[in-house]
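Consortium newsletter contribution from the modelling node. Members have asked for a concrete example of what our holo predictions look like. Here is one, prepared for the zinc ion complex that several groups have been discussing at recent meetings.
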Amino acid sequence: MNEVQPVKQFLAEEHDHDGCVKQAMQNAVRICRDRGLRLTAQRRRVLELVWNSHKPVGAYDILNALNSDGKRAGPPTVYRALDFLIEANLVHRLDSLNAFVGCPDPNSPHTGQFLICRHCRSVAELDDQAISDLIISSAAATGFVAEEQTLEVQGVCVACSNQSN
Ligand SMILES: [Zn+2]
Ligand SMILES: [Zn+2]
Ligand SMILES: [Zn+2]
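And here is the predicted structure:
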């Protein structure tokens, strides 16, 4: 039992982020193996770049980092790798920021509920089934069949609100 608990809250500024990255890469290897997906070197590198921190990164930041590795990747390469990682539940896309963040708990299928700090841009992921169920049932009351949901909540994280006090 060496599973790290999924991030259900914002992590302290100084935490063992190498541990987060290591866990994320182990998850990716296992999930791709179990589902018969090919985790190429390029996809692995893109995932590492997404996991650079808990702040969402844009596709062009990833592209610049890849190219500074000496690769000559174009935007389609990055978008294809991101699509693969999203499809495999390893990465989430945050539409409100047009950016990407690594999923700390890709093992369980879940809808995305994100708390986004507007000061430091850190993101924490909630996985609250009660919220999903409520959206599904409220939608169903109108005859609508909810299939996918991504909830993005903007606000201030605990570290940033402590700083301003
Ligand atoms: Zn971390
Ligand atoms: Zn997730
Ligand atoms: Zn913050």
